[in-house]
From TrEMBL:
It comes from the Bacteria. The gene is thrB. It catalyses: L-homoserine + ATP = O-phospho-L-homoserine + ADP + H(+). The keyword RNA-binding does not apply. Residues 27-272 form the Aminoglycoside phosphotransferase domain. This is Homoserine kinase. Its EC number is 2.7.1.39. It comes from Pacificimonas pallii.
Amino acid sequence: MAVYTKVSAEALSAFLARYDVGELVSMKGIAEGVENSNYFVETTGAAVGGLGPAGEHSRTRFILTLYEKRVDIADLPFFLGLTAHLSHQGLPVPAPIPDRDGAALQQLEGRPACLIEFLPGVSVSEVTPALARAAGDALARLHLGVEGFSGTRPNTLGLAGWEELAYACKAQLSAIDPALPALVAEELAWQRQTLPADIPAGIIHADLFPDNVLIQGGEISGLIDFYFACHDRLAYDLAITHAAWAFDDDGLYRGDPVAEALLEGYRNVRPLTAAEHAALPGLQRGAALRFLLTRAYDWINTPPGAMVTRKDPMAFARRLRHYQLAS
Ligand SMILES: Nc1ncnc2c1ncn2[C@@H]1O[C@H](COP(=O)(O)OP(=O)(O)O)[C@@H](O)[C@H]1O
Ligand SMILES: N[C@@H](CCOP(=O)(O)O)C(=O)O
């Protein structure tokens, strides 16, 4: 369960008093997620224009996020500005809620915090070709939708970041699996000598896993968790999304129907250039290595008492081997 910081009802009530959202009705820590602390929050809703037909305020739901771990406070204006922009573009992206003074970024229980629009739907748990196609379509629309957004953030989890993570994990990688040190070293060497392709770049989501896509009635109702968003090659985002969707939780390939549907869904909205198409296999290897390394780092460094389910690094070792064999 990803609740690193406990929020008391008293502190939350005082926090909500800055907004026009009524009073606190209920709060609940959210089990899913690994990066930040998230709560479902229900309030009585703003009493705009008097009470509702039943003589009561309509209840309103929000997400409360407290930023932890990898999120750099200096990046929060970028993340919140990006989600506000995408929501404004009509994409199903949760908008940050400003308080009465117009400030979205706050402090709560000593952490940076934000009240965020609640989107309906449930995270994708069963990947089908139809959902993979919808995810590809949504990713391409995100890439088009970020045009006009002036914020930027470098990708801190590119090659230099992978090298740092590998160095930090080094002595303990073999405790996860005896084959990991060689796999990581070999792939880092390959990535180092593979020149980055000169292909279209922009702001990417960089973590569009099935659990970050909400579905309602078979349609995408939400794209969430933009806290790895950064400037990088658009095809790298497609490579990440492929690595996330085309394999199951154990890292076994789901098969061509899912993988092809994802790529087709993307290309139907934003066709790939020939150079992007040629770069994709190498970018997929890089994507698998990136998540292998962050998961390995977390596997080794998650504090024993943390309410979080660690994610298996070996599921990305299997993806990496798949992509190595295919490229
Ligand atoms: N705006 C939102 N609307 C509805 N549910 C949300 C929203 N944001 C997050 N959630 C829920 O919270 C869970 C964890 O959020 P996520 O952003 O993935 O956390 P983390 O950043 O810790 O990985 C999601 O799986 C989803 O169930
Ligand atoms: N998607 C990453 C971890 C980040 O977790 P998220 O819940 O924020 O998507 C992984 O699977 O390793």
